[in-house]
Structures are given as C-alpha cells and as structure tokens.
Specification:
Order of helices and strands: EHHHHHHEHEHEHEEH
Number of domains: 2
CATH architecture of the largest domain: 3-Layer(aba) Sandwich
Distance between the termini: 17 Å
Helix content: 40-55%
CATH superfamily of the largest domain: HAD superfamily/HAD-like
Amino acid sequence: MATVKLEHIKACVFDAYGTLFDVNAAARAEQQALGDKWQEIAEIWRMKQLQYTWLRSLQRRHADFWEVTGDALDFAIASAKMADPALRERLMNLYLTLSAYPEVKATLQTLKRAGMKCAILSNGTPEMLDAAVENAGIASLLDGIYSIEEVGIYKPDPSVYQLAVDRLDVSPSEISFQSSNGWDAYSAKAFGFNVIWCNRFGQADERLPETPDAQIRTLDELPAIVGAV
C-alpha cells in the first residue's frame, strides 16, 4: 500500500462519514425490513445525499445535513418503490449511531500518544457528529469536531477546509487530511493539505486537479505515514 512518509505533521483531520463511520450501517441494521434491496437503498441514499450537498451549494440554498440526509433517504425509498414511515424514522435514527470502522479508535489512540492533534471536519451537523462520536467512544481522542454549518456551505468549498486551519491554529502544510471520498481527498489536496485517501471501496482515481499524497485501504496505515510510530 502506501510508502510515502509525511514530515512536520502536527494535526490529523478526518472526514466523518465513510471515513470514520460506516455509512451503510443504518441500512444494514434494517436488512430484515428492506430485504434484498437493502444494499441498493444504502448506495442510492449515500449518492443522493452527496449530490444534494453539491446542488444546494451551487444553488446557494443551504439546508443542513440532517435535512439533506432525510431528503436523500426519501428518494432512495421511493426509487425502491417502498413506502413505510416507521421504517424511514428508524433509518434516520440509526444514522445518529452509525458504527465506527474497527480500526478507528486504535488509530486515534496511536496518533494522540504521539502528540498529534486530531479533529473531524465534516458535512454533518454538530448534533449528528456529537451523536456519532459519543456512540463510537472517541470524544476524548479528538481536539475538535468541525461542521460545515459554521460557514453554511458544503465541501469541497475551500472555506470548509479553512475551518481546520483556523481552529487548530496550524498551517495547511502541517495538516494531514484523511477522507474515504475521492472527490473530497482531491479537493483537500488542491486546497493545500497533505492528503491520505482512505480508499476503502477501491474507487478509481478522480480526474480532478491535484492528487492525494497516498492511498490506503484502512486508517491503521496512517500513523506510520505521519510519523506517529
């Protein structure tokens, strides 16, 4: 996998959904109700969730990530020709307690022992992020949880990435940014971060300006790259 070594890193900043937290966990937990359509619904839900963030940003018609997530779920359920208000409510509530990937907590612990600042930079609302962090038991390992709600526009607008610089009081060159989303990883690199693309799903390379410094499949590869071990 990755062989690059980054120097002078003072902070590791993580995307939340798909990077720290499993976005398919909610639909997976309702497999019995969703049947063999659960994975299709999970994929459409996530795709539309992202599309709606970009479209709302371009339209300058902001709605927070909870509303966007609900709209995307409604589209996914309608696409599967299902209609069940109780199921919708359960799925939305499950999104507040998405499970963290298995290596997340240990990775953060290793980074913190090495003196790294660790933070989340996410499209999620503060309430959504706080719920996920509490459920994962990682609050004590984070120096900050930053939501795009502070700037009122979604990634990949540069003002979102600037949040991490301002809040952590470090330069972009001293930050290693991790995301499982290719578009996010490439955009963060264009902003000026060091970027590790946690390419969990084997996505193809993006055709966007700039290229992440390295690709990994799971976050347990990160500490060695940033000099934390």
